[in-house]
Amino acid sequence: MPDRFSTATRIRALGAQAQARVYRATGRGPAVAPPPPRRNRLTGRAAVLALVLCALVVALAYPMRQYIAQRSQIADQRKQAQEAEKRVEELREEKARWQDPAYVRSRARERLNYVLPGETGFTVVGPSQSATADDSADRHDANDTAALRAWYANLWDGVDRADAQAVQATQADQR
C-alpha cells in the first residue's frame, strides 16, 4: 500500500496548492483546481470492434437468409415426399383390392349396374327424381330427355331409330 506521505504525493499536493495561489492572484480562474480531463467513451479499440461487428453482420446477412430459405424448402420437400409415399401406399392398397375377384365383381355391379345370370336388376328412382323426369319430358325435346336416361338406354334407342329408318327406306323403295 503506497504511503500517503510519500514524496510523489507531497510534490503533487504542493503543485496543486501553488496552482491555486496563481489562479487567485491573477483572478483568471477558480480557486479550486480544474477537474481532470474527461475520458472519451469511444476509444479507438471500441470503434474498430464496432466496425468489425457491423461488417460481420452485413457479410453474414445474405447467407443466413439463403440458409433459412433453403431449410424451409427442404422441409416443404420432405412434406411432399411424405404425402407422395402416403399416396403410393393408398394406390398399392387399391391395386391389391382390385386383384380380388369378389371386389371387382362388387364394383362392376355397383358402378355399371351389372347383374348375374338369373337375377333381375332394378333401378329405384326417388319421388323427386321421377317428378323431375316427367316434367322435363313434357318441357324438353327428345335430345334433352336422352341426357336424363342411362347410356345403354340411349344406345338402344339409337339402334332402334336407325333400324326404323332403314325399314322405312326399304318400304319406300318397294313402292
Task: Write the topology of this structure.
Layout: H1 7-26, H2 44-98, H3 101-112, H4 127-139, H5 142-148, H6 151-174
Overall mean pLDDT: 82
Helical segment tally?
6
Class from secondary-structure proportions: mainly alpha
Give the helix proportion (percent range): over 70%
How far the N terminus sits from the C terminus, by CA atoms, comes to 148 Å
Radius of gyration: 52 Å
User: What's the multimeric state?
Assistant: single chain
Main sheet summary: none
How would you characterize the overall build of this protein?
- Helix content is 75%, strand content 0%.
- By secondary structure, the protein is mainly alpha-helical.
- The termini are far apart.
- The mean pLDDT is 82.
Question: Gist?
Answer:
The chain is mainly α. It has helices at 7-26, 44-98, 101-112, 127-139, 142-148, 151-174.
Entry keywords:
rod-shaped; mainly alpha; 6 helices; 175 residues
